[in-house]
Amino acid sequence: MAKVDTSPIMKTYNRFPVTLVKGKGSYVWDDKGNKYLDYTAGIATCNLGHVPEEIRGKVMEQFDQLWHCSNLYHIPAQQQLAELLVEYSCFDQVFFCNSGAEANEAAIKLARKYAHDQGKEEGEIVTFTQSFHGRTMATLSATGQKKIQHGFTPLLTGFRHEPFNDMEALEKIIQPDTIAVLLELVQGEGGVMVANSEWVQKLATLCKQHDVLLIVDEVQTGIGRTGSLFAYEQYDIEPDIITLAKGLGSGIPIGAILAKEEVAQSFQPGSHGSTFGGNPLAATAGLETVKYLAKEEHQLTIKKNILYFHNELRDIKDKFSLIKEVRGKGLLLGLAVEGNALDIISLIREMGVLVLPAGPNVIRILPPLNTTKAEIDYFVHQLSEALEAKSKAI
Ligand SMILES: *Cc1c(COP(=O)(O)O)cnc(C)c1O
Fold this sequence. Notes:
By secondary structure, this protein is an alpha/beta fold. 36% of the residues lie in helices and 18% in strands. The longest helix has 24 residues, at 296-319.
């Protein structure tokens, strides 16, 4: 067959025309020596900035001791990370994997197994429109976006999609065969849509009343991103399961699910597993990340950053009619703009600042949680210049 492309990499991504070779704190450098303020944080992953000293030290110590041994043996860092996650949450047990999709797969499997253990074998899981739960077959079937599912039928059965933030739709949300509800508290990929508190609380109450599991996908919102270690804490609810990944290892791949004991016990030897999940290196990165975020001085810095950044963005919105809405929670922020978000993202990149899209009309801003006031000021300045240029061009 004739070659149609010279790249040996499959085209699953439309990449920006930049090659990053180095990072430190909130900054990255490309192969030509250009410096960028990175307000993408590797898609909400490098939450403590690039190569954070506090994490690097312990990971390097582990690097010299043992990289991998499989989950057939006890792993001290994994044990300690699980203990901390349990201590700082309403959950009792943890399962480790390597990514967000895998965490959601595990949560879906656990919910189904728990239902089976109660004699419910054909149950369905409710998820929401515009949600994003991953790219594996189960998680893309759970995802409420046609564009993610296109070309991959037959999908997994057992999912029903309902409208997000819709009070009226709640009345019929739980059907006789519903076993679980899975949702994001801020839909990240879906356009930075924040779940309404009242709606979430009513949903959680309905789940409790009908003995239906509440699963929160905190792959993007977790690990301090929204201003608390987990976003569910701000909604005054207690889910049965949450899933984590992106920020958990500060950029080293690790995922996890946290569950209440009664649910967690449905996983027994042979039910589920992962060769790499929570391996010594990844678990050490996770452990040091959670320890860092647990420190009060760091929480104070993050709170200050959130207040300051929100104010600055509100001011920017008042100055530019191009911006239709500022939304988000903590440092998971979205600017809904008039027209194509990618145009502005390209402009601002040429001015030395990296941000992301979330759908066609939203600029997604994900600074490292420990960014500085000076960096926020620089960001706001560059963003203003880009919006000024764009406004003139229209
Ligand atoms: C990124 C993301 C996922 C998928 O995580 P991967 O590590 O890419 O598999 C799942 N759910 C949410 C909410 C996400 O933001």
